[in-house]
Design brief:
Blueprint lengths: L10 E5 L4 H12 L3 E6 L2 H13 L3 E6 L5 H15 L4 E4 L14 H29 L2 E6 L12 H21 L4 E8 L12 H11 L7 H12 L9 E4 L7
Parallel strand pairs: 1-2, 1-4, 2-3, 4-5, 5-6, 6-7
Helix pairs in contact: 1-7, 3-4, 4-5
């Protein structure tokens, strides 16, 4: 990839690795020399990604995982550590964005977002911390959103989950300083991924109106930001990165 960052000998675990930012981050880390563990519910997608990384000279394992299920999250982290030998970086990227007004909302959408966006981050982090503490080093990257900074009408529960990830990340950073574990919060603006496609048709229409005329970020743009954060020397901790398309206002 020509990133200039050398992650040789490191192990990176990425959730939500079946598409978008997770897939791009796994590829970027593999190209920089890391062994990668891939988690997602779509086993075929992560299996083919692992095969692609292997063809390109890297090392990857695919672990079908629902990160919002505590047992599955723990099994993913433990398998990454056992099969790849250590755990240097956890990228908590798996996320769901289901927008729309609070009134008359399908409450199952709220449960889905809290399941993945909140419990997924908590369970994977909980499993990874003892391993990183024991080795005296590690890095946890939590992928939030500009929606973790700016609340808007029509995204209240998504805002709730992402503001929560931001608060959790700062508390985690303070707890892990003495362990030698770094914490980074990544807050993307509008990115061209599948994320918006899971919304109801009327919500998708609103999203396309809002971002119709601007050049969106690519998944690779965010992967490059993550690679920058984890590629810094150990005495440098990039705590937070907010990355918007140049034309995005809010």
């Amino acid at each position: 990839m020509g990133s200039g960052f050398d992650l040789s000998g490191q192990v990176v675990a990425v959730t939500g690795a079946s598409s978008g930012i997770g897939e791009a981050t796994a590829l970027a880390c593999a190209h920089a020399g890391a062994a990668v563990a891939l988690a997602a519910r779509r086993s075929d997608r992560i299996q083919s990604l692992a095969e692609r990384i292997a063809r390109e000279g890297g090392r990857a394992i695919a672990v079908p995982t629902d990160v919002g299920d505590e047992g599955q999250a723990q099994a993913f982290i433990e398998r990454a550590h056992a099969e790849l030998g250590r755990l240097d970086v956890l990228v908590n990227n798996a996320g769901v964005m289901l927008l729309g007004p609070i009134e008359n909302a399908p409450t199952e959408e709220w449960r889905q977002m809290i399941h993945v966006n909140v419990f997924g981050v908590l369970y994977c982090t909980h499993a990874a911390l003892p391993l990183m503490h024991a080795q005296g080093s590690g890095h946890i990257v939590n992928v939030s959103s500009v929606a973790g900074r700016v609340a808007r009408a029509g995204s209240g529960v998504y805002n709730l989950t992402k503001f929560g990830v931001g608060a959790f990340s700062e508390s985690l950073r303070r707890e892990t300083v003495e362990m030698g574990v770094r914490v980074t919060l990544i807050e993307p603006g509008a990115v061209a991924t599948e994320l918006a496609s899971h919304n109801r048709p009327e919500v998708r229409e609103q999203i396309s109106k809002r971002f119709g005329g601007i050049t969106l970020l690519t998944a690779e743009d965010i992967a490059n930001a993550i690679l920058y954060a984890i590629g810094q020397p150990r005495h440098v901790s990039v705590n937070e990165m907010l990355i918007r398309p140049s034309e995005q206002l809010g």
